[in-house]
Backbone:
């Protein structure tokens, strides 16, 4: 009996491998390499068998192991990438503790308090900063930026406004440097 | 330790050392995947699932310990051959030293607690 990669059991195994690799998020290039290596292995192993039978095909695939084991080993060997578990065979379920990622309600409340909440002097920005530091989704840098936005920036704006008002008042009381008084001078040709 | 704990320890040991065994096999000459699997299997089942050697080989390649070339085979599809790099060779040498120390240490400790047949019989006579 001639056996090649079109053998239904081998084809099914390779299809399972591809499916598991896709589910695990293996890059297309690595999936193709893995398929080529496993295919060559199957043909080499069957070539080493005294007689190629369905039983021999089954034995070769059994020794190769479940496709989940192969993909799991691939994940364990691969440098960590976002969305990949560090071990196991399937992508990890969503983490119970939210990490960096899309904003949640707390982050939107913090943003509202830090911007619109400025109308409630002191209380609004302070509450906004508190919400920002309570967030598990914002990075430390983001929280520092929120603190600057909520507390430091308003103070700086007030200082700047005060300085402008004082400077502007002093300028308005003195002569303008661009004021030019045109004084008519008599022409030597004039009578 | 629970019954069967020894088997678990050996499984973990096997996982830890198999990559160095692969590198050691490549010292003599470049080999392809199935060739490596056959050697490892004959050496006492160092691989539980033969297919897991390919992710391992991919990692060794990424780590710069092996390089690969595809070569035509006389029968069948092209084969990917793995060859040791200088870093890979150095890694094997380093592991050999570490393994020898580890093995000697474990053997010595196991030997301390071992009961020889002679002393066991003498103990039985003492009871009588």
Residues:
């Amino acid at each position: 009996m001639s056996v090649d990669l079109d053998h239904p059991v081998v084809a099914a195994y390779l299809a399972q491998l591809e499916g598991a690799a896709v589910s695990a998020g293996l890059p297309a290039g690595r999936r193709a390499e893995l398929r080529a290596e496993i295919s060559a292995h199957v043909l080499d192993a069957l070539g080493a068998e005294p007689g190629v039978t369905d039983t021999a095909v089954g034995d070769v695939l059994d020794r190769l192991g479940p496709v989940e084991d192969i993909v799991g080993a691939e994940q364990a060997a691969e440098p960590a990438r976002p969305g990949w578990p560090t071990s196991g065979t399937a992508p990890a379920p969503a983490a119970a503790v939210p990490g960096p990622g899309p904003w949640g309600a707390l982050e939107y409340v913090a943003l509202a308090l830090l911007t619109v909440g400025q109308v409630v002097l002191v209380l609004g920005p302070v509450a906004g900063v508190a919400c920002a530091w309570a967030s598990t989704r914002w990075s430390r840098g983001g929280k520092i930026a929120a603190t600057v936005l909520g507390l430091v920036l308003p103070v700086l704006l007030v200082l700047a406004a005060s300085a402008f008002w004082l400077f502007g008042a002093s300028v308005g009381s003195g002569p303008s440097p661009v004021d030019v008084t045109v004084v008519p001078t008599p022409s030597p040709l004039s009578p | 330790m629970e019954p069967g704990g020894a088997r678990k320890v050996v499984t973990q040991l096997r996982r830890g050392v198999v990559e160095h065994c692969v590198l050691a096999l490549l010292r003599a000459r470049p080999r392809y995947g199935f060739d490596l699997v056959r050697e490892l299997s004959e050496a006492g089942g160092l691989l539980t699932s033969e297919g897991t050697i390919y992710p391992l080989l991919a990692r060794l390649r990424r780590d710069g310990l092996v390089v690969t070339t595809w070569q035509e085979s006389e029968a069948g599809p092209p084969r990917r051959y793995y060859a040791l790099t200088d870093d890979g060779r150095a890694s094997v040498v380093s592991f050999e030293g570490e393994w020898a120390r580890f093995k000697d240490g474990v053997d010595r400790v196991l030997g301390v607690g071992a009961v020889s047949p002679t002393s066991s019989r003498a103990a039985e006579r003492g009871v009588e």
Notes: The mean pLDDT of chain B is 86. The two ends of chain B are 33 Å apart (CA to CA). The longest strand of chain B covers residues 66-71.
